[in-house]
Amino acid sequence: MTTNTVLLLLLSVLLAGGVSFFQYFYKAKSNSKINWILAFLRFCSIFGLLLLLINPIITRKSFETIKIPLPVVVDNSSSVAEFKANEIALEVYQKIVSNTELKEKFDIQSYQFSAELEASETFDFKGTQTRIDGVGKGLKSIHKSINHPTVIITDGNQTQGNDYIYSFDENKAVYPIVLGDTTAVFDLKISQLNVNKYAFLKNKFPVEVFVNYSGKKNVNATFSISQGNTILNKQNINFTQNQKSHLITVLLPADKVGVQVFKAAISSSEIEKNKYNNSKNFAVEVIDQKSEIAIISSINHPDIGALKRAIETNQQRKVTIVKPNQINSLKDFNVLILYQPTSEFKTVFEKNVVANLNTWIITGTKTDFTFLNQQQDAFSFKMSSQQEDYLATFSSQFNLFASDNIGFENFPPLQNAFGTITPKIKMETLLTARILNVELNTPLLSYVDIQGKRTCFLFGENSWKWRLQSHINQQSFEKFDVFIDKTIQFLATNNARKSLVVTHENFYNSGDAIVINAQYFNKNYEFDDKARLSISVKNKATNQTKSYDLLKSTNSFKVNLDGLPAGNYSFTVTENNSKTSHTGFFEVLDFDIEKQFVNPDYIKLNQLATQTKGKTFLANQVEELVKSLISNDNYKPIQKEIVKKTPIIDWIWLLLIVVAALASEWFIRKYNGLL
Fold this sequence. Notes:
Layout: H1 3-24, H2 33-54, E1 57-66, E2 68-75, H3 78-82, H4 86-97, H5 100-105, E3 106-113, E4 117-119, H6 133-142, E5 150-154, E6 174-178, E7 187-195, E8 198-200, E9 204-214, E10 219-227, E11 230-239, E12 245-253, E13 258-267, E14 279-287, E15 291-297, H7 302-311, E16 317-322, E17 335-339, H8 346-355, E18 358-363, H9 369-375, E19 379-394, E20 414-423, E21 428-435, E22 438-450, E23 453-459, H10 464-474, H11 478-492, E24 500-503, E25 507-509, E26 515-520, E27 533-539, E28 545-549, E29 551-552, E30 557-560, E31 567-575, E32 580-589, H12 602-611, E33 617-618, H13 622-631, E34 638-647, H14 652-671
Helix pairs in contact: 1-2, 2-14, 7-11, 10-11
């Protein structure tokens, strides 16, 4: 309170006292008790009003003791139950949170984690994933600027996320309590399996498997990959004290279309504590990409044979060479290669208006460019009768699909009519033309993709020389043939737009998030956020069907089907307003990652404790941990001063006193006939 305020308050006391004295005692005929009471009431009312006008600020100080938080984080994943350590975990937790001395010193906070960190005082040990790095990140956001210890009760085996050693604040000590038996036991394990999700029919796909051994003696094991009752690969593996891991690579045939499920397994004659991690199921979707390609030409040329050989190096391609007047129907083909079209190709172009097949147009010295101007809208040709040799320049900006520069700049020139080639629409150019060292900035090889209709243009003949030159450079036709195959792949893919597009995986592991996304587009192919999408999921083995609504997110609809048991499922996504539907299937593989461990990861937890200047404890060392925390002087409670300033005008009761004093004075004066 300032000096001016104190002086004003003293002046108010004098003024209120002076008015009361003047009214009830100055020249008063009697000095009765009533006058004293009335004078007091008048003093209270006047002083109260002056006090409200001055409005002094009342400052009050108090002190609060803030305890340091002590997060006690319990691993709620099912791997704890697999180690039969769930009861021990609960016992350890209760000893910590019920300790009187700890509660006096710390603000004990209970958390649990599996896939996510959350506050909880109850645990069921049924989590399907373990993400310890999420604990570190979560506690950082909760206690940003407070130096506190953390007790984490876990087996240390993480199944998701990044390395958790570096996710905790290194200035805040972590005290892991290790659950499970740390004694090393004999164990064979498939630790990791890598395989592509897709493979092409009649090709072979690689499977990469990492197998590990834990034990103290040499072991002979058998590794196998099977499909159903059929063994596809079997081999012996030797483990020693110096060789405790192996990388196995196997090529498997893709003989059947669809999702094919396989099983990798490793076994030995030794007795193991945990055999669940000895096998791992995996799946590959085999795609039939068989394409029928027609090379239509009215002339004989070496390019045709070179293209046929290059295309058919992929066993999924079949090439038919026909003349334009021999084409009766286009329904048997997927891609058309029109080699140097002339007016003889008129019926082919007319039939393709109906068939709507993707085409590759190759021009040359025999091409009728006047006719070609009439049959397509991508380019305008103003060509002369003069011939010219065009060299190629690779465009690194091309991004329609992945393509490597196989040495195009050093290939022999292609021959074409001399003139002007002008693009009429937007397109992607892979190769541009040049004459000697002069860049023409005109296309040599371009691709067009408009509303699902794809066309490729190669402006020049003698590409057979390119294939030959590639073989001279690389001692193989492979790079050139792959380049041709990517062009055919681009043309063979049907990219027609659909109103209902559904995205999903064809297989999921048990415990993984099973998410299906869908997008619904209106007639202008604009995302319709007012669509009503639902999904019906059927278990093929039990015929049990469940229905769900898809929830709208930013630019799609999605549904989460977590918790489905292993098995095969079919589903149908339906847009309820238009009744548009999409049918698909997926498989949930029987794989529980939480059952893959035989020991707690003591080494990793000890690294975490060392990194954060904490200490690792076993489950039977809780008392030692408690004593350590209690005796640690780094975690003393903080006394906080709280200053509260209140303006006196906020005191409602002061106004009530003023009103009561005035009312009482009036009543007493009225009662005694002084009014």
